[in-house]
Design goal:
22 strands, alpha+beta, five-stranded parallel sheet, 531 residues, four-stranded antiparallel sheet
C-alpha cells in the first residue's frame, strides 16, 4: 500500500497531520490500533486539558473547528434544554478541568466527519485496527513499515516518501533505529533545575486507565478484582495515606489534602469555573472531569451526571510500559487498579453523608467503548522522545526561571501552546512536579530528528525532555504538533526539499511558516502571562 505520506497512529496528532496533508492535496494512509480515532480524547477517554484563553486564541483553526464541531453535534443531536442550547460556550459536562468536557463518542463522530470527504475521494485510507510491527530502513530513510491487524491475519506493507510517527509511545523510533530518549534526562545534560543528577531512562510518568461512571438507583457493584487486596493496602511513601483514599498530595503544593466526592450535586452548569489558571478544579472529584451534566439536558434525558474517572488514585506506579519486556503485564495491572478503584468506590469509600460505599455507581463502558467497561486504551502521558535538532528544556518555559520575560521565542516557530509543567507521580517513585509555565512556542527543530530525513514525530514524541513533556503533551499542543508535521511533509513534497533544508534555509522556512499561518496556525502569543 502506498501514498504520499504514511501517518502511523490515529490520535489527535495523527488526525491533525493527516488533515494537513489532505488539505494540501496529498494522499495519506492513516493507521490506528484502537477502534476509535482520536487517542487521548476518545479511546483514552480524557476530556481536553486546555489553557485559559482557548475560546479566543492560542489554538489552530482546525483544532477550533474540532471544538466547534463537538458543540454543534450536541446542538444537532442531543436533547439540550433551552438554557444550554443558548449557551454560546456550551460545556456539556460542566467539568472543572476544561471549558469543553464531553462524551468521547461525540469527538469520534466529529473527527470522522472531518475526514469523511477525503475517504470518499479515495485520497485517505484508514487501516484500523492496525499497529506497526516492523520497518525497513535505507541509511537515514524509512522505506517501508509493516503493519499488523490487532486480531490477526496478513500483514500490510506501507510505503511512502514521508512517514509520520503519531503513535502514543513513539513506536516507530525503535523500529526504525531512530535515536530517542525515555524518562528523566540528567541535569548535566539539560541544565534543568528539576532534573536529577543522573539520567533515569526507566523513570516515566504513570499511565492511567480511565473509566466513566454515573450514579443511579440499585446496586451496581462489580465483582471483587483478583488484586483488590494488594491495591487496597498500597501506599506510596509520599502519598499521605493509602492510594485508595480521598487523601493525596496536592500537585501544586505537595501538601496532603482531602478531596470530596458528591455524586449529582445539582450544581448549575453555567456557574462552573473551568479555568485552571484560577482553580485546578479537583476539589470535588465528581465534577472535576464530569463529561455529561444532566442539568444541561431536558428533564429525564439523563438519569445522572456522567463523571470520567481520571483521578490520582488510578495512576499506575509499579513500572513503565515502554521498552520493558513485561509491558503487557503492567498494562493489565493498570486495568486491575482501575477496577479496584471502582470496587472501592462502590463498597468501602467514605461517603459524604457518613456512610460507606456508593453501590449506585454504575460503570459506563458504553460511554468509553472498552470491552471490560474501562477506556479502550491506557492514557499515556509520556512517550519515547526523538533526539531532535532542538530540545525544549525547563528553563525555556518555566516561570520560576524565566520570570516576566515569557518563554523563549523561536525563529522557527510552528505553533503555540500553554499548560503548566504537569508531571504525575512516576515509576521511579517521584512525587508530582507541577509548576507554573509561560505560554510557549513549538520550535520546528523539535519536530526534526537529528539524523533521519523522512521520519517526522507527530505526537508526544517530539524533542522535549521528561519535564517539558509535561507541558507539551496536552490535547491542543499535540494537535498543533501533528498539523505542523503534516504540513511540513506536504511542503517538502511540493518543493522537492527536506525538513532539514526547510529549517536551514531562511526563505524556505518563511514560505513554510506562511503556509501554516494561511491555514490558521498561530506562531506567536499576544501579551499574556503564564500560570
Amino acid at each position: 500500500m502506498s501514498a504520499d505520506a504514511l501517518v502511523v497512529g490515529g490520535g489527535l496528532g495523527g488526525v491533525a497531520a493527516a488533515l494537513a496533508l489532505l488539505r494540501a492535496g496529498r494522499s495519506v494512509v492513516l493507521t490506528e490500533e484502537y477502534d476509535w480515532l482520536g487517542g487521548q480524547l476518545t479511546s483514552q477517554a480524557v476530556p481536553p486539558d486546555e489553557h485559559t484563553w482557548v475560546e479566543r486564541f492560542g489554538v489552530t483553526a482546525s483544532y477550533r473547528a474540532l471544538r466547534d464541531g463537538i458543540r454543534r453535534y450536541y446542538r444537532d443531536h442531543y436533547p439540550l434544554n433551552e438554557r444550554a442550547r443558548a449557551w454560546a460556550e456550551l460545556n456539556p459536562g460542566a467539568g472543572h478541568v476544561s471549558k469543553l468536557c464531553h462524551e468521547p463518542r461525540v469527538a469520534v463522530a466529529v473527527i470522522e466527519a472531518m475526514l469523511a470527504p477525503y475517504r470518499g475521494s479515495g485520497r485517505l485510507r484508514v487501516l484500523q485496527p492496525y499497529r506497526p510491527v516492523g520497518a525497513e530502513v535505507d541509511g537515514d530513510r524509512v522505506t517501508a513499515v509493516r503493519l499488523a491487524h490487532r486480531d490477526g491475519g496478513a500483514e500490510v506493507i506501507a510505503v511512502a516518501p514521508y512517514v509520520l510517527d503519531a503513535t502514543e509511545t513513539g513506536e516507530l523510533l525503535p523500529l526504525t533505529g531512530t535515536e530517542y530518549v525515555t524518562g528523566f534526562e540528567a541535569q548535566d545534560d539539560t541544565g534543568e533545575p528539576s532534573a536529577p543528577a543522573t539520567a533515569q531512562p526507566m523513570n516515566m510518568q504513570a499511565v492511567s486507565v480511565c473509566f466513566a461512571i454515573d450514579h443511579v438507583d440499585g446496586d451496581h457493584t462489580v465483582d471483587r478484582p483478583a488484586s483488590y487486596d494488594f491495591w487496597r493496602a498500597y501506599q506510596p511513601p509520599f502519598w499521605g495515606d493509602r492510594l485508595l483514599s480521598w487523601r493525596c498530595p496536592s500537585p501544586r503544593t505537595l501538601e496532603i489534602v482531602e478531596r470530596s466526592f458528591t455524586p449529582n450535586p445539582g450544581d448549575d452548569p453555567r456557574l462552573v469555573e473551568a479555568d485552571q489558571r484560577v482553580n485546578p478544579g479537583d476539589g470535588n472529584l465528581w465534577t472535576f472531569r464530569r463529561i455529561a451534566a444532566r442539568d444541561n439536558f431536558v428533564p429525564g434525558a439523563y438519569e445522572s451526571d456522567i463523571a470520567l474517572v481520571n483521578w490520582p488514585m488510578i495512576d499506575y506506579l509499579e513500572g513503565p510500559v515502554i521498552d520493558v519486556p513485561d509491558a503487557d503485564r503492567h498494562l493489565a495491572a493498570a486495568r486491575e487498579l482501575s477496577m479496584s478503584v471502582l470496587y472501592w468506590l462502590q463498597t468501602e469509600a467514605p461517603r459524604h453523608d457518613g456512610g460507606t460505599g456508593y453501590p449506585g455507581l454504575r460503570l459506563r463502558g458504553d460511554v468509553t467503548g472498552g470491552a471490560d467497561g474501562l477506556a479502550q486504551a491506557p492514557y499515556i502521558r509520556e512517550s519515547r522522545r526523538v533526539r531532535a535538532l532542538t530540545t525544549v528544556t525547563e528553563q525555556d518555559l518555566s516561570v520560576a526561571v524565566r520570570g516576566d520575560k515569557g518563554a523563549v521565542s523561536y525563529h522557527d516557530s510552528v505553533g503555540v501552546g500553554m499548560y503548566r509543567i504537569d508531571l504525575h507521580p512516576s515509576t521511579g517513585g517521584d512525587n508530582y512536579i507541577d509548576v507554573a509555565c509561560s505560554p510557549f512556542e513549538i520550535p520546528l527543530g523539535a519536530l526534526i530528528p537529528q539524523r533521519m530525513s523522512n521520519l517526522l514525530p507527530a505526537c508526544k514524541n517530539i524533542g522535549t525532555t521528561h519535564i517539558t513533556n509535561g507541558a507539551y503533551r496536552l490535547h491542543p499542543v499535540e494537535w498543533n504538533v501533528g498539523e505542523a508535521a503534516g504540513a511540513l511533509a506536504a511542503f517538502c513534497l511540493d518543493r522537492a526539499t527536506t525538513p532539514h533544508a526547510v529549517r536551514a534555509d531562511g526563505r524556505l522556512l518563511a514560505d513554510y511558516q506562511h503556509r501554516l499561518v494561511r491555514d490558521g496556525v498561530e506562531l506567536r502569543w499576544p501579551d499574556v502571562t503564564g500560570y
